[in-house]
Design brief:
Structural class: mainly alpha
Radius of gyration: 22 Å
Number of helices: 20
Strand content: under 5%
Number of strands: 0
Number of domains: 2
Distance between the termini: 22 Å
Largest sheet: none
Shape: globular
Length: about 475
């Protein structure tokens, strides 16, 4: 296997060991959450996390991405990068603390502002440390941290939700404790104190970091709006209960995007290293297998979706299954946006990245206003699906201007058509078992070349393993 593929595979495995295992455990905690909290409590808790995701790019100025870019692609002094980033987050945290009275005006989360601020600040510092760890290529440490963070989260959830029955407060406190332990672990593991004390603020470097990251603030906020206005508008136009149902419906699609994001963590490192070489075959091969695994995974999930949801969530949340199919389709396009976005970011085209995401945001907000009053939760999901498609399409076009790689559009469109038909058959209960099985078979046929390649590769590996030693 070529060295660049080996490195991409190794980094993916390392990130998956920590990240995927951690996310699966969190995924498995949903039955605990849906039985320990009511639908409206879970909806409010989800709103707190949603608002935190909005605040983080603002108080960090999205510098975490700059930590990785300048540390790997530009080879800058990593100690200076870390110190510059900490300075920005400290200032942002002070601004956030001063906004405490203002945040209390948002009635649904007014009793939980302390948790919101605490979680946002701790997670902001942790994000910087995570990207610093990647820039140092300490991927094993990164994986161990992910496992540690999840273990602490699981234990504290059991303690606060099952033993002490603290409800929302217990859920949010668990998150803060887990993030804090992780931050401390990364700080010690990277000897960050020594790095910070040995460095000086480099204002010119900070300026270049900000020029790279500031467009990403608007990019990240636009993504927040795409992912979060659904919940806020559902809460405003329907109810807290509906937010809880929607939040549970997003768990399986979120697991998909989590898996693809784990790959994209490794992919973006590869694009930073390989961009200057313009090896189009590398990009084509990786995208082909990325889309193959994504399409097969979604097809199989749709096949087992309804019986799985019947045992996965509490009885009050079972109706959420009907909202999952279109969310899974939206997850496909979100996964593609991450892939294309890494290529664009490696070319330092963050301004264009921002513009594309803003266009998608406008589609999302407009469709939310138009569809939720008539279609309820499903209207919000359609808005997300359309906006993700628009962003994916525009990013694909933009990425191909950065690197002239080829995409098999026929296979791309045909696969989506099959998955769309499978989703609609489930939602409208139109011979769902027959159609979902046929859809899985159809996806495998469409991607038969990928399957043949994998079989041949495995057979070659087996032959090499059986070859006598000389």
């Amino acid at each position: 296997m070529n060295g660049k593929y080996k490195k991409l595979t190794l980094n993916t495995i390392l990130f998956a060991i920590g990240g995927l295992g951690s996310k699966v455990l969190i995924f498995l905690l949903v039955p605990l959450y849906t039985n320990a909290m009511t639908t409206d409590q879970y909806g409010i808790a989800d709103l707190v996390i949603t608002l935190s995701a909005l605040l983080m790019p603002v108080i960090t100025l999205s510098l975490s991405e700059a930590v990785l870019y300048f540390g790997i692609s530009k080879g800058e002094d990593k100690n200076k990068i870390l110190l510059n980033s900490f300075l920005v987050v400290i200032i942002g945290s002070l601004v956030l603390l001063s906004s405490f009275p203002l945040l209390r005006f948002y009635q649904p989360i007014s009793d939980y502002v302390f948790y919101l601020i605490g979680f946002t600040i701790v997670t902001s510092f942790r994000n910087i440390m995570q990207f610093h760890t990647k820039s140092l290529e300490k991927n094993v440490l990164f994986s161990i941290d992910s496992i540690l963070q999840t273990s602490i989260l699981v234990l504290s959830n059991i303690l606060f939700l099952l033993v002490f029955k603290m409800g929302i407060e217990g859920y949010l406190l668990s998150l803060i404790i887990a993030e804090s332990v992780s931050l401390l672990f990364l700080f010690i593991g990277n000897r960050a104190l020594s790095s910070l004390l040995s460095a000086k603020i480099d204002w010119q470097l900070l300026k270049r970091m900000l020029l790279f990251s500031i467009p990403l603030i608007f990019n990240n906020i636009s993504w927040w709006i795409i992912h979060s206005t659904d919940k806020i508008m559902i809460q405003f136009l329907i109810s807290d209960d509906a937010v809880g149902i929607y939040a549970v419906a997003t768990k399986i699609p979120t697991l998909i995007t989590t898996v693809t994001n784990i790959f994209c963590q490794a992919w973006i490192i590869s694009t930073y290293v390989e961009y200057s070489k313009k090896d189009t075959h590398f990009y084509e091969t990786v995208f082909d297998f990325y889309s193959f695994l994504l399409n097969v995974g979604i097809a199989v999930l749709l096949l087992i979706l309804k019986p799985f949801m019947s045992i996965y969530v509490g009885a009050n949340f079972f109706e959420s299954w009907q909202f999952v199919p279109l969310l899974l389709l939206a997850a496909i396009f979100q996964s593609y946006t991450s892939f294309f976005g890494a290529i664009i970011q490696s070319a330092n085209k963050n301004n264009k990245l921002m513009i594309v995401t803003i266009v998608g945001m406008v589609f999302n907000v407009g469709l939310n206003f138009a569809l939720i009053p008539f279609l309820g939760i499903q209207g919000a999901i359609i808005a997300t699906l359309v906006s993700n498609f628009v962003i994916s399409l525009l990013r694909m076009i933009l990425s191909k201007k950065c690197v002239e790689y080829k995409i098999n559009y026929f296979k791309f469109i045909l696969s989506f058509g099959v998955l769309l038909g499978e989703s609609l058959a489930l939602i409208y209960d139109f011979h769902p078992l027959i159609i979902t099985i046929c859809s899985v078979v159809a996806i495998l046929i469409i991607h038969y070349k990928n399957i043949i390649f994998i079989i041949k590769w495995l057979m070659n590996r087996k032959k090499k393993g059986e070859a006598p030693a000389e």
